Amino acid sequence: MYYEMVKDKKSGAFKRLTGVKKETFAEMVTVLKKAAENKLKAGRTSKLSIEDQLLLTLSYWREYRTQYHLAASYGIHESTANRIINKIEDSLLASGAFSLPSKRQVEQTEWVVVMVDATEMQIERPQKNNDATTQVRNTSIASKYN
């Protein structure tokens, strides 16, 4: 699925599909375009646009699809999909705008803990009666061996 197919969706559907809001996606694209302009080495231009590369990476994170399946969806080789995912991850992490909170920030937050006691629960078991169990008579077993 290419960005051209997704860009006109409503914001709720876009978030359900990609895992990020449209505004966040646009911010990510601007960061990636700046990183593409600042790269030192020139090389072959990618078959996929930056938006499609980001969409490929987000679908890899969101859907846990294999890189082989992603590559088949976008018409590229599996190793190319791997390079794209690594490049996008590195660029987004280097920007610092999309990183997770630090350990210090997490430690300073106030946590609310809710505990549920589910240890003693009644279990419905069938009633034991003579109809449910069949007893073997000892005489039938003894007669086989005599």
Task: Summarize the model shown.
The protein is built from eight helices and no strands. With 146 residues, the protein is mainly α.
Tally of separate helices? 8
Rg for CA atoms: 30 Å
Question: Averaged pLDDT, please?
Answer: 84
Number of strands: 0
Strand-residue fraction? under 5%
The main β sheet shows up as: none
- Label the structural class: mainly alpha
Give the oligomeric state: single chain
Shape: elongated
Unreliable residue runs: none
What string, H for helix and E for strand, traces the elements in order? Answer: HHHHHHHH
Distance between the termini: 78 Å
Give the fraction of residues assigned to helices: 55-70%
Question: Features of this protein?
Answer:
146 residues; 8 helices; 57% helix; elongated
Written account of the structure:
The chain is mainly α. The chain has a domain at 3-100. The protein has eight helices and no strands. The model has no long low-confidence stretch (mean pLDDT 84).
What's the layout of helices and strands?
Blueprint: H1 3-6, H2 11-18, H3 22-38, H4 50-63, H5 67-74, H6 78-95, H7 103-108, H8 138-145
Helix pairs in contact: 3-6, 4-6, 5-6
